[in-house]
Amino acid sequence: MRNAKWRAATKAALALTGAAALAASMAMFLPGTASAGTTLGASAAEKGRYFGAAVAANRLSDGAYTTILNREFNSVTPENEMKIDATEPQQGQFNFTNADRIVNHARSQGMSVRGHTLAWHSQQPGWMQNMSGSALRQAMLNHVTQVATYYRGKIAAWDVVNEAFADGSSGARRDSNLQRTGNDWIEAAFRAARAADPGAKLCYNDYNTDNWTHAKTQAVYNMVRDFKSRGVPIDCVGLQSHFNNDSPYVSNYRTTLSSFAALGVDVQITELDIQNAPANTYRAVVEDCLAVPRCNGITVWGIRDSDSWRSEQSPLLFTSGGAKKAAYDAVLAALNAGGTTPPPTTAPPTTPPPTTAPPTTPPPTTPPPTGSCTATVSVNQWPGGFVANVRVTAGSSALNSWATTITLPSGAAVTNAWSANRSGNSGTVRFTNVDYNSQVGAGQTIEFGFQGTGTAGNLSATCA
Ligand code: 9MR
Fold first, then answer.
1. Bridge partner list, 115
2. How far is CA 59 from the centre of its chain?
3. Is 149 in contact with 193 (CB distance < 8 Å)?
4. What is the pLDDT of residue 64?
5. Cβ atoms 258, 221 nearer than 8 A
6. Spacing, Cα 73 to ligand 1 middle (Å)
7. 325 in Cβ contact with 319 (< 8 Å)
8. 211-220, 317-326, 424-433 — which is least confidently predicted?
């Protein structure tokens, strides 16, 4: 957005004074305004990307800190303030005070916000650490829903689930209280997040997933591929990219970025820091991202070395005194290399569709036909509650819209649905497409789901 301001100012200056006078007019009329080529955010924006930093609310009162933040970055990630222990310290009592300080600061500066994180085995409040089974599953889904709803429309991308895979060579999920609620906890979290904020990109985020040959990287890749094939709503993968001597940058990093991107998701470098901040390694990371059209942003995990969670490794772009390091110069040069390129065209919309868009063409006098389809339901039941996943498959003709009804047994009721509009909550409940899944190719399948209370039993769905 600062880039947009800059572009507007640039256009005006060009129109008034001509290109030759541009530099002089900017110096006269726009002192301190970020310009492409001289700051990380503006230079990244010229390449259709953002450059962000993790921000701590308690540092926003430090003028030296905010001077660099406001000058250099056009995206922020709250470092700890959106974690579960911060936002729901007591069950059902939400606290957004510190997260709001960061979000408000970002919005006032025209920066986008990455939300971090809705579901994680770590930094759980005490009440959640002590939960298990269906109660934990419901508490987790409620947390995702409440927090994503509160910030609806303000978050460019959510780390919906963080660090759910085990280290080492197993390729297995990490054991945790959330994992023990059932292997589908991750997709359930993504569906709840999509329902709460349809405009946010939904990311899976992890560390030690940089080396393409590592089992953990492959395991995350396989999960994302599976999610995409089954219509689980995932838009992006976050590679934390905390590089150090034990977990170094490797030259197949670009292969990792492009392989994830080839699954049809954006890739974001979400928590970059590099032990001792070697300029060459920082440059290589930026070049790798720029080489992959769907690598659409880089976030460093702090601003000055003194702000880092690993400050003893001096892994960031600014010294503790706020001076630019050699790594900063390398990053900026890499962002500026090759001139301006158009932004990638593959990004999904980042804002929710308007609810009352004026029609630009006369509406059809009859609704488009709802073609024939078949639907199947699978239910994950626990005492007192359930989650149902419904797969709708088009027949031999493509669908422009679809509708399906499901009859619940008495005592069962739907509490929320994702990737579908719903009418009714008990008895026969009707589900219809939302905008983004109205089109289903011949023989293709989309998926939606809903959560409910009571006992669902074996459900069947009828296409209407
Ligand atoms: O930088 C964060 C640090 O201030 C916290 O003490 C720590 C607690 O878990 O979390 C750090 O951030 C982590 C991030 O949330 C997830 N990926 C690893 C980051 C560094 O530990």
1. 158
2. 24
3. no
4. 98
5. no
6. 20
7. yes
8. 424-433
Exposed (0-12), middle (13-18) or buried (19+): which is 400, by Cβ within 10 Å?
middle
Q: How far is the CA of 288 from the centre of ligand 1 (A)?
A: 24
Could you list the active site residues?
163, 271
**Burial degree of 46 (CB within 10 A; 0-12, 13-18, 19+):** buried
Sheet holding 421-423, edge to edge: 421-423, 428-432, 403-407, 461-463
Phi-psi region of 302 (alpha: psi -120 to 50; beta: other; left: phi over 0): left
Q: Which residues line ligand 1 (CB under 6 A)?
A: 79-80, 122-123, 162, 207, 240, 271, 309
pLDDT for 69 beyond 90: yes
* Lookup: tokens for 310: 């690993």
pLDDT confidence bin for 464, thresholds 50/70/90: confident
Give residue 353's pLDDT band: very low, low, confident or very high (50, 70, 90): very low
Token representation of residue 210: 């940089």
Cα of first residue to Cα of last residue in the chain, in angstroms, is 44
Please indicate, yes or no, whether the overall pTM of this predicted structure exceeds 0.90. Answer: no
Instruction: Report the pLDDT value the prediction gives residue 397, as an integer from 0 to 100.
Output: 87
Name the one residue in this structure whose structure tokens are 């920082």: 282
For the ranges 228-242, 291-305, 384-398, the lowest mean pLDDT is seen at 384-398
* Mean predicted confidence (pLDDT) in 219-231: 98
Give the closest residue (by CA) to ligand 1 atom 9.
123
Q: Check if the beta carbon of residue 406 is closer than 8 Å to that of residue 390.
A: yes
Pocket test for ligand 1, best of 79, 160, 207, 241 (most atoms within 8 A of CB): 79
Going from the C-alpha of 270 to that of each of 101, 262, 363, the distances in angstroms are: 21, 19, 43
Distance (Å, rounded) from C-alpha 361 to C-alpha 348?
Answer: 23
381: left (phi over 0), alpha (psi -120 to 50) or beta: beta
**Which residue's alpha carbon is at the smallest distance from atom 8 of ligand 1?**
123
Residues β-bridged to residue 75? 52, 112
